[in-house]
Each structure stands twice: as structure tokens, then as C-alpha cells.
């Protein structure tokens, strides 16, 4: 398998998320089995990502994502997805199978962080710059 240039960083992200989920400290070189990775659920990824940006796994309407940006969450999602056994499959919430990074809760969290932080998309930046705004 061709490994991406960021493979070592991807492994660190995977180890950090699994350490958070399992309550143990995994070394970034730890080899997770396909079974361990297949057990991951969207809730596991959501809670870890929320903790990374909100400082808590269960943010409510009063919380602000002051610890990270949506782009960080998108990178974490990409890194974790690289290791998923079913990385090309969307998450199927009825049979709880597929790639949990491609689930609605994970994607909604990223959208919420983007909105709450007032982050602009590239398209908005381009149009506001072209019109002299921003």
C-alpha cells in the first residue's frame, strides 16, 4: 500500500484517538488490528473530535470551539479514515457499518465548528476579496 507523506502524523492522530477512546496510552507505532479499527463507531470519533476543539466530549449550545478549527477536524477525519477497514464506504447507521468518519454526526460537528467560529469557505473568501470586502 502506498503510504501518504503524512503517514507518521496520521499514525499519531490514530494513536491519540484510540488512546482517548480506550483510556490507555498507545504509542504511535502501535499496530491496531482490523478488528479494533472495525469496532470504531461515529460516537467514538465525535467525542474525541469534540474534546479536541471544545475541551469536552459532549458540547452543548453554550460551548464555543476555542481549542481548534474545522480544518483541524477535517485533517483528523482524513487521517483516521486512512486506517478504516471500510474507508470507501459511507457510514450506514441502520446496520452500523462502513467508515465512521463519513457519518452524519462527525460531518455535522465539523460544520458546526466552522459556523460557530465564523470560518469562511474558500468561495466566500474569493468573492469577498474580489468585491473589495474582507
What brief labels describe this structure?
mainly alpha; globular; 134 residues
At a glance:
The chain contains six helices and no strands. The chain is mostly helical and 134 residues long.
* Largest sheet: number of strands, sense, barrel closure: none
Shape: globular
How helix-rich are the residues, as a percent range?
Answer: 40-55%
Counted beta strands: 0
**How many independent structural domains?**
1
Give the strand content. Answer: under 5%
Walk me through what this model shows:
By secondary structure, the chain is mostly helical. It contains six helices and no strands.
How is the secondary structure organized here?
Layout: H1 7-22, H2 34-38, H3 42-54, H4 70-83, H5 104-116, H6 122-130
Amino acid at each position: 500500500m502506498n503510504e501518504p507523506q503524512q503517514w507518521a502524523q496520521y499514525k499519531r492522530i490514530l494513536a491519540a484517538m484510540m488512546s482517548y477512546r480506550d483510556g490507555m496510552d498507545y504509542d504511535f507505532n502501535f499496530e491496531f488490528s482490523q478488528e479494533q479499527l472495525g469496532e470504531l463507531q461515529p460516537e467514538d470519533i465525535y467525542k474525541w473530535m469534540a474534546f479536541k476543539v471544545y475541551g469536552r466530549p459532549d458540547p452543548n449550545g453554550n460551548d464555543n470551539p476555542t481549542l481548534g478549527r474545522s480544518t483541524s477536524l477535517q485533517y483528523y477525519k482524513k487521517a483516521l479514515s486512512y486506517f478504516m477497514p471500510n474507508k470507501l464506504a459511507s457510514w450506514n447507521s441502520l446496520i452500523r457499518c462502513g467508515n465512521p468518519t463519513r457519518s452524519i454526526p462527525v460531518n455535522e460537528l465539523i460544520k458546526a465548528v466552522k459556523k460557530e467560529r465564523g470560518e469562511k469557505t474558500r468561495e466566500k473568501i474569493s468573492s469577498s476579496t474580489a468585491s473589495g470586502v474582507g
